[in-house]
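=== Given protein ===
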Amino acid sequence: MSIGKRIKEIRASLHLTSAELAQKLNIPVRTIGSYEREEAQPGPRFLNALIECCCININWLLSGRGNMFISRKTECDLQYIAQLQERLNLTDKEIEGLIELLDSAASREMVLKFIEIKKGNKEALDSLIYNLQGIKAIYG
């Protein structure tokens, strides 16, 4: 697989359009398209920005070997966690709890519903209430 196809695969995995990725990397959208169509080869500046912004495994990006994303305990993740901890004034124990919460598929689904509710999605609110009633019935 070519590097252009791997860039397209990264976008698909992150559920980003070309425009959204271009905005994240602060480059023209046509540049993303030219890389994906293999009309141009990405340079080191672009590759470094992509790796840093999206926590991409450089080995996978360049060769296709290994995992697409860097593992959870990487410098990229640690920087993000430190920013989150500082911004929300969380203790180390609270951060560990938050990571545990998001590692659980069921808990992560509930958090995503809260995000949808914040965006004004009434169906997500109804679904969350239904789920919470079920949890209450079980744990009572």
